[in-house]
Amino acid sequence: MSEDAMSQENAAKQGNGSAKPTEPKLRPTGEHTTSHAMELNSETIHYQATVGTITIDTKDVKPAASDFYVAFELIDETGKADTTRPVTFIFNGGPGSSSTFLMMGSLGPKRIDIPDAAPVPAAPYGLKDNPYTMLPYSDIVFIDAPGAGFSQIAEKARKELFSVDGDVKGFSAFIRAYLTRFHRWNSPKYVLGESYGTTRGAALSYRLQQDGVALNGLVLISNILDYAFTFDTSDQFYVGYFPTYATVAHYHGKAGQDVDIETHLNAAREFANGPLRTALAQGDAIDETTKRSVAKRYAELTGLSEQYVYDSDLRVLDMRFRKELLRHNGGEDTGMIVGRYDGRSKGYDLDRTAQEETFVVDDSFLDPAYSSVANAYLRDELGWDGTEERRGFADFDWESTEPGKGWTWWHSLPEGAKTSWGAHIPFPTVTPDLAAAIAHEPTLKVMIGNGIYDLCTPFNQTEYDIDHMALPKPLRGNVAFTYYPAGHMLYTAPESIRKFSGDLSRFYASDVAGLADINERKA
User: Fold this and answer.
1) Domain for residue 7, yes or no?
2) Residue 432 located in a structural domain
3) Residue 123 placed within a domain
4) Is position 78 within any domain?
5) For range 192-214, the mean pLDDT
6) Which of 141, 153, 363, 501 has the most beta carbons within 10 angstroms of its beta carbon?
């Protein structure tokens, strides 16, 4: 009889005789390291890759989680890493996401080789040395969130870690444990987060300060910093999305074909932040002439019909835009839908008459390829010996409001933040955290990156959020904006990853004063 079977049999003999399966033990702290080399800029660089886990505690549960990570470090001719180099902690979002997309598509030493903004065939997939890796200027640590990827979570810890603030505390605990284990406390430290990882990253920059860690820099890509805008009852929802509608329409030849993309984008931004905002603010009090005029200009910039915009009360939901843009195009792509994460993508829907798409086209294209390559790379090349399935997301219930079963969205603001709710608010607004982090550490530099075709986290909303941080004027130069000709996973497009790599290289080499040369959003 196996040990598992024996434990279940013993459990059945206790209490009322009902079997209570024991929770699997968390994988203990440990690692496995391999050595590698690659050609970069006509030179051979040597690096080591470490796959491992670090256990973390929460206030109430010890140990609470076993966090999986993959670290890449440059090594010298003796095989030794330099602990004085910068180290960058990188994570995806979700919340509750693995690091698969960033690890396999962006800045690591290997990068997936698949078509851009197009359907992806089935396996085998290409994996090649990445000329855009950040290894020349920083060591890298990719982190899976608790319960996602190869990370594990204790059942009793779900209530704490499956929450905005508990998640931030957990990542702080991991980073501090990593710094101790690998003697990196005195290294320059950076954090890079994507999507919900920007929510986490902004709050984490402040949390780390409270826990004794000051970041040198923070990189936030595909940003969502204030969840208030995600409520489509807010006028800001429609203002924030509008310029991205216009860029996607331009890409697909539906609007602005007589001007370049930058000119079209700026016209859309000006319209959104001016006439559209003013019209939406009037609500039902808007006069018919103004409503018709705004609907006309809206249609010109987005390729939607004027009547559709008017009938939508000037408020077109993002999922309806994705379905409507090509519905009557007249070409081979008539009736196709465009992607949520990357508006350049398009695919066939199963119900052409429905107002909303039946699946998210770009996610369906990319997820199987990235998941397959990550499993093969981690297991076969880097030597991860775990047999458990790699999870794209932690298994909490998105619909549940019960702590531990769903995600708890409440967030505690930094002390002194301006709020009529008090310090504890029912959704994450983390611009106060970021503002506090910068104010407490005026040398903290921040790079904000967004894809202009991202219909998940629109760039115009990010601009609005940063503009409303209430930073003292001398500190506003601590934040630099960069933009990319891609979608949410802005590193998937060859032109975009090339630019992203160059922007990051300059960001790491600069101080706060040097951010003016990186910033693409001029006052």
Assistant:
1) no
2) yes
3) yes
4) yes
5) 98
6) 153
Give me the chain's average pLDDT, please. Answer: 93
Cα–Cα distance measured from residue 336 to residue 349, given in angstroms and rounded to the nearest whole number: 6
What CA–CA distances, in Å, run from 438 to 343, 406, 470, 475?
A: 33, 32, 11, 7
Last residue of a domain, one of 316, 331, 356: 316
Could you tell me the CA-to-CA distances from 392 to 26, 93, 135, 145, 508 in Å, in that order? 19, 11, 25, 10, 30
Per the structure, how many domains does the chain have? Answer: 2
Q: Which percentage of the chain shows pLDDT scores above 90?
A: 85
Separation CA 481–CA 519 (nearest Å): 5
The backbone torsions φ and ψ at residue 377, rounded to the nearest 5 degrees and listed phi first, read -65, -50
How many CA atoms, within 13 angstroms, populate the side-chain half-sphere of residue 117? 25
For residue 56, the cross-strand partners are: 65
Residues 6+ apart with CB under 8 A from 105: 111, 112, 370, 489, 491, 492
According to the model, what pLDDT value does residue 232 have?
Answer: 78
- In sequence order, what are the residues at sequence separation of 6 or more whose Cβ sits closer than 8 angstroms to the Cβ of residue 309? 295, 298, 299, 302, 316
Domain end point (choices 282, 316, 350): 316
What burial letters (b/e) apply to 253-268, b meaning 16+ CB within 10 Å?
ebbbeeeeeeebbebb
Q: Give me the domain span that covers residue 377.
A: 23-228+370-517
Give CA angle at 394 (378, 398), nearest 5°. 150
- pTM across the whole model: 0.94
Q: 184: domain CATH number? A: 3.40.50.1820
Same domain, 107 and 192: yes
The Cα 321–Cα 337 span in angstroms is: 9
228 compared with 105, residue with greater pLDDT: 105
173 and 42 housed in the same domain? yes
For 381-415, write each residue's pLDDT tens digit. Answer: 999 999 999 999 999 999 999 999 999 999 999 98
pLDDT in tens, 153-169: 999 999 999 999 999 99
Q: Provide the total of helices (H) and of strands (E) in the chain, helices listed first.
A: 15, 16
DSSP secondary structure letter of residue 68? E
Categorize the per-residue pLDDT at 1 as very low, low, confident or very high, splitting at 50, 70 and 90: very low
First CA to last CA across the chain, in angstroms?
72
Examine the domain organization and report whether 153 and 275 are in the same domain: no
* φ, ψ at 269 (rounded to 5°): -60, -45
